[in-house]
Amino acid sequence: MARLSTRITTINGGGDDGWGVFLKARRMIAQGTPVTELTIGEHDIRTDPSILAAMDSAARAGHTGYAMVPGTDRLRDTVAKRVTARTGVPTTRDNVIITPGGQAALFATHHATNDAGDTALMIDPYYATYPGTIRAVGARPGIIPTRSRDAFAPQRAEIDRAVETSRAAGSTPRSLLVNSPNNPTGAIYGADTMQAIARAACDHDLWLISDEVYDTQVWEGDHISPRQLPGMADRVLVIGSMSKSHAMTGSRVGWIVGPEQGIAHLIDLATNTTYGVPGYIQAAADFALNAGQQLEDDIGAPFRRRRAIAQKVLGAQQLVGSIPSQGAMYLMLDIRRTGLSGEAFANRLLDTHHIAVMPGESFGASAAGHIRVAMTVEDTAFERALGTLCEFAASVA
């Protein structure tokens, strides 16, 4: 075989991509072993039938050919109207490009902001694909560590230190990726934290890439988009998605919101990569975004309930610690008192009780000794699995 590029062969940094326990669980399921999966952020309800009907209707009406690469005017206008209403920042279709899901948006925004060899900063713990996405565009991941005792909120001093570290290594920091509500921790960055992040971006002349795909899943506090902070609209690229808000994970439709000139260049990139999103899927997304708040509330309701269930179960014991989950569909649990690493705990839990969770180490060094639990199974099964997890922790401590 001819030589493959260094860029593609080093996407995972020469190590595990963080999905080992998840893949092991899937192999067990394929072999006929029942497993309670608390791993990935996949709703246990499917896309609402009304959205599927809109998708079917659009496809049967002929919207199966090439769609406009930036997205249909109708969907871009709908996204712009939604962003304006939610943030107060005037937004038009020229500030919006439709993408094949949030992951494609992550790739595109880092391509737009980083040249080969530049540093793209990200906060640890991070969503498992962040480092690989950054390496895939030829940039270097720059890690900003956080602490469990701070609920994994980033501190300004650590941002400054990461900037200086990258410069000392001969690499220019160009972007900072933030995610609130956060995957994997469930944290929501408060006003002080978000303002400190914005000031750091300005002081170090960084693009701020804001992954806001969980912005409808807020259980405590308020979601703040950094684009709405004073002076930040021309420095922020916001990533949104239909996956979490409307249980449309498989439809692969999201967006980027940013300054007009940046969006224009991102359209050039899309023309030469994804070539847009199918029109019938965009029609379904437009229908869903206009279906009303109740639909979004119904999709988020199971996670709000299960968060309350988790608080009850975890409150009845004192060994497994819980990072306050303010949003999203995850719990970050501290299992360091068991003496096991997150990876060892997750593997032994899967082997002995057929419950699959994600090791904290899958999301970076800051989450070592933790596990992430996705609240994505039916309430009774979730309560039972979480209780078994706590009993297992006690048995190995």
Automatic annotation (TrEMBL):
Its EC number is 2.6.1.-. InterPro entries: Aminotransferase_I/II_large (IPR004839), AspAT/PAT-like (IPR050596), NHTrfase_class1_PyrdxlP-BS (IPR004838), PyrdxlP-dep_Trfase (IPR015424), PyrdxlP-dep_Trfase_major (IPR015421). Residues 35-387 form the Aminotransferase class I/classII large domain. CDD domains: AAT_like. Its cofactor is pyridoxal 5'-phosphate. It comes from the Bacteria. It catalyses: L-aspartate + 2-oxoglutarate = oxaloacetate + L-glutamate. The keyword Nucleotide-binding does not apply. Pfam families: Aminotran_1_2. GO terms for molecular function: transaminase activity. It is an enzyme of class 2 (transferase). Keywords: Aminotransferase, Pyridoxal phosphate, Transferase. Belongs to the class-I pyridoxal-phosphate-dependent aminotransferase family. This is Aminotransferase. It comes from Arenibacterium halophilum.
